[in-house]
């Protein structure tokens, strides 16, 4: 049984916002105060997006599915390994920019492939994209 286009987009949004929170969690203990403030702001926005996606998914009769445990574990291990070699603010910013840029590409693809007609799902996807783009711009200051 194939999912409705709205549910597919919303599940992607939920999973991406969830991974954004996890990515921030993995590096925030290494961040200096100013960068930490920015990362916490980014995390709060991802939490809001994830919460809205959760509500819309449930309204559609489905359950939200975050990133799988293996994906989270793999990302955590990769972050820990990279932080062990270099935990400078520049390296943290670089990691955040790289991860978010991959997310931007996937978000654009999901939005372009979306064939549904739910304005709330589309609006939330566009908000996720805008948030990702803004986060990359903010992290550039720390390179």
Describe this structure in words.
This protein has 143 residues and is mostly helical. It has one domain (5-140): Ferritin, core subunit, four-helix bundle (Ferritin, Up-down Bundle). It contains five helices and no strands. It has helices at 5-27, 33-59, 69-85, 89-113, 119-140. The radius of gyration is 15 Å and the shape is elongated.
Brief account:
By secondary structure, the protein is an all-alpha fold. Helix content is 80%, strand content 0%.
Characteristic terms for this protein:
80% helix, 5 helices, single chain, mainly alpha, 143 residues
Q: What share of residues are in beta strands?
A: under 5%
End-to-end distance: 46 Å
Highest-level CATH class: Mainly Alpha
Q: What is the CATH topology descriptor?
A: Ferritin
Radius of gyration: 15 Å
CATH superfamily: Ferritin, core subunit, four-helix bundle
Describe the biggest sheet? none
Task: Report the strand count.
Answer: 0
Average of pLDDT: 89
CATH architecture: Up-down Bundle
Large-scale geometry: elongated
Unreliable runs: none
Structural category: mainly alpha
SS field, number of helical segments: 5
Helix/strand order, N-terminal first: HHHHH
